[in-house]
Prior knowledge:
By secondary structure, the chain is of the alpha+beta class. The protein contains five helices and five strands. The chain has helices at residues 13-16, 20-23, 32-42, 92-106, 121-129; strands spanning 5-10, 47-54, 57-69, 73-83, 111-114.
Amino acid sequence: MHSHIRFQKETTVAGMLPYYSLITMLTPALTADEYSRLLQQMVPHNYYQVAAYEGDTCVGVSGYWIGAKLYCGKYLEIDNFVVAESHRSRGLGKLFIDWLEAEARANGCSTLMLDAYIENFSAHRFYYREGFIGRGFHYLKKLR
Length: 144
């Protein structure tokens, strides 16, 4: 499988729109219109996506942000990382992490970070295997 996978970085909203169906695997309530509207807000603020292709078929996508924070310096934050069910447990996740780490280094980042849903234990195991550590809690408060 590894030799047949190619990665494609997307920097525009139009380039990201085709990945909507994969993104909804993580956020099923997200409508196509909302996805487009949010991307229009996110892309100008250093949001990108990278897609993995096997032939002409997109088999995974990950968003990421590049920014800086006082506690960690310049970082690449992985956001909405999803691999098609048909391609899970076949090494694609590791290839994504390797690509994202290389992208972080190429952009002068000193940290690679992400949030994972509390109940997503298989993701936790994967991220620990890839060298990530649990460093804190991510809190949110929904505003009405």
